[in-house]
Amino acid sequence: MGTMIEFARPDGGKTKGYLATAGQGRPGVVVIQEWWGLNDQICGVADRFARAGYNALAPDLYKGRLTTEPDEANHLMTGLDFADATHQDLRGAAQHLQAQSDRVAVMGYCMGGALTIAAAVHVPEFAAGVCFYGIPPKAFADPAKVRIPLQGHFANKDDWCTPDAVDDLERTLKSAGVRHEIYRYDAAHAFANERSAAYDVGCANQAWERMAAFLGAQIA
Q1: What distances in angstroms separate CA 86 from CA 71, 78, 83, 124, one per listed residue?
Q2: What whole-number distance in Å separates Cα of residue 29 and Cα of residue 72?
């Protein structure tokens, strides 16, 4: 359904990404990849958004690099300049979508979930955010400084984005008065990725429905 495009960054550079469109004037969503890279699964999420009536753009944060090996994925993620990805690639994607979408949200999984919260702090073009099992370092993006409505989906059996970390996130959001919804699922990390061994169809469908209702209320 979609196609690879090149879009401008605020600094004048260019980034490639997968764009799936629903039409001029439809709301927009920037979809942020997991640590594997911009693979077919993430492009499929963008396609799903387009079928639901959103213009969706998934930036290629790894500049064409992909992997299916956890060690290499960790290497790619730790090598990513999170500040550059947030302020340049994600903001550029939001600005690109604004040409055809009045309101733009951001969402992502795992690494992309952490970057969703970072974007909710640092990128003024976004009107809402949906985070799946990812939290950024507070030194880079303090959740207390989130300035848009935020929805989060987390796994109770997660040893990376742990339940304790989610509890701390929720306390921070509450104390700061950030509009938010936090949902927890009796599942493991990556429960919403149909290509993962942790995929849980019931939890994934429930999370998607909750996200659809949230985005419908915030940007549609």
Answers
A1: 23, 15, 5, 11
A2: 28
DSSP bridge partners of 184: 154
Q: What is the DSSP letter of 196?
A: S
Q: How far is CA 55 from the centre of its chain?
A: 14
Distance between CA 29 and CA 85 in Å, rounded? 16
Residues (pLDDT < 50) of the chain are none
Q: Which helix (H) or strand (E) holds 4?
A: strand 3-8
3-class SS of residue 39: coil
- For 13, 31, 130, 149, the CA distances from 107, given in Å and listed in that order, are 23, 5, 5, 12
First to last CA, the chain: 21
Angle at 208 between CA 144 and CA 170, to 5 degrees: 20
Evaluate whether 88 touches 119 at the Cβ level (below 8 Å): no
* CATH number of the domain to which 16 belongs: 3.40.50.1820
Helix (H, G, I), strand (E, B) or coil at 214: helix
Overall number of domains in the chain: 1
pLDDT tens for 56-71 read: 999 999 999 999 999 9
pTM: 0.97
Report d(CA 6, CA 175) in Å as an integer: 40
How far is residue 130 CA from its own chain's centroid? 6
Residue with tokens 């090598």: 79
